[in-house]
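Input:
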Amino acid sequence: MNANTQNQSAVMSDTPKPVVKPSEIQVKNVSKSYGAGLFEKQVIKDCSFTIERNKLTVMIGPSGCGKSTLIRLLAGFEKPTAGTIELDGKRITGPGRDRLVVFQESALFPWMTTHDNIMYGPKARRENTKQNRGLAEYLLEKVGLSAFRAKYPPQLSGGMQRRAELARAMINNPDVMILDEPFRGLDCMSKELMWEYYSGLFEESHRTNFFVTTDIDEAIFLADRLLIMSNIPGQVRETIEVDLPRPRRLAFVFDDDRAIAVKMEALSILHKEAMKSFSGGSKAASDFVEAYSKRSAAAETAEQ
Amino acid sequence: MISKRLTKSLFSRSNLRAVIAIFVFLVLWEVGSRSKDWFGFPMPWVGHVPPPTAVLVAWYGLLGDPGYWQSWYMSTLRVLAGFLAAMVIGIPLGLFMAVNKTFHGIVFPSFEVLRPIPPLAWVPASIIFWPTQELSIAFVTFLGAFFTIVINVLGGAKSIDPRFFQSAQSMGSSQWDVFRRVVLPATLPSIVVGSAVGMGITWEVVVAAEMISGGGGTTGSGGGLGFFIWNSYVGGSYEQIVVGMISIGIAGFVCSELLRKLGGYLTPWLRKR
Ligand SMILES: Nc1ncnc2c1ncn2[C@@H]1O[C@H](COP(=O)(O)OP(=O)(O)O)[C@@H](O)[C@H]1O
Ligand SMILES: [Mg+2]
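Output:
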């Protein structure tokens, strides 16, 4: 299972690891709407939370609750309608090298090989140095793509593309890594493999990470802190500290009592939010939902 | 090893099929052309076309004629001149229109008004505007490829996924770097397609322009393949008309094939694995 962590010490010793800055992002009363007047749509409403330094913060929420929108705000591609976002006390006003976003779908450059994609950032900043070239080799090894260095993205599998993208982001040594459902659409097996690759990368540096997902198992496996989103307009409903030991391995995470407790807690909140969106504010629908959940609860007790 | 592979690819199933198809086509053509002699009545259309054997004989006779090769040379030169000019002007123009809104706003309206005018409609005006006949033919040829190239480059550059720009930007790319390492390679496939289509149009246009303008001032068969065909028609040599037509077919095919090869070489990521 943990093949990725076995043969890396050799490469690691002669590659000086870059220093990781302990950065923190504070989201303060942020709102975001699109359109105006009659067509105004509020996607995020008075949302506040902290992405703590040196931690892997995972945000989970139903689709369409505004997670990607929030990420565009964090990245600085768009501006909030109200409220502020601060990185280490400095207000974020636009995109910057200190935050790197890994997108929902692959954004690897199809015209560059895996290796050239990873070296894009260093070359863009005229830092095609020996150290960075060594780091590229190290990362290729670390994400298991050394043999695919000369392939173009369309020639890689979905999981390989995602790993290449992780490496391409990591080499730039951002203060904060931001990931928007990076493993969505992968099959179950490659997804679990990705969790181990990714948490391995995190555990190595404890860089501040913000990870958005809709998958509860993924969230619990990865998170130090778990933020649970409400329905649209998005807000953080609940924060759960996931104090499972690291390094995390699939073999034990899902047998852990604490992990199961967190999962139940998170699911019950998500379930409530999902029900709210299902009834959509209509009285009749919410009555129906209530009656239905009572009935299924009764059925459950009858079974036992 | 290599020769074995070459033999294998030369005699592959698809190549064999192509050879057989062409052979059958030639036989049908031969039979059709000679239908009057053989069956006593001409087949419709093909009964008035010289048979391929006669064309081959005429062609063989022309192989030693410097005038014939001069026609090839003249047409190729004009095509290359017009096509290269269209690329040199068209590619930067398309790219610049894609990245600069103001420039796009100024140039695009006039471009869109001029674009639908068929290149051949420019022939008379072109003859009046340009001092030499040679320049007017080259200009019309240029127009043939120009609009196609510009519209392809513009479309290609405008449809680049915005996430590529966002990634590049957040990895610390300067504007020039984004242009060089994102916009340019992302547009390359459209440049290749636009050029290939443009090249085809160029051959269509040059031949027609040579026929209309009377072949660039030189007398005899020195005025390009278009003039060669026209001259053969006037001189009543139907075999030579067909030789001229096939020559143009070959020339266009070779040019397109070379472009496709070059394009494939420039865009390795589009190749099948
Ligand atoms: N640029 C936009 N203009 C209008 N509505 C948008 C825009 N971007 C997102 N939305 C709306 O915001 C909501 C949340 O979208 P998104 O942030 O992508 O959700 P998530 O990532 O949580 O699935 C959706 O209903 C979507 O229609
Ligand atoms: Mg999303």
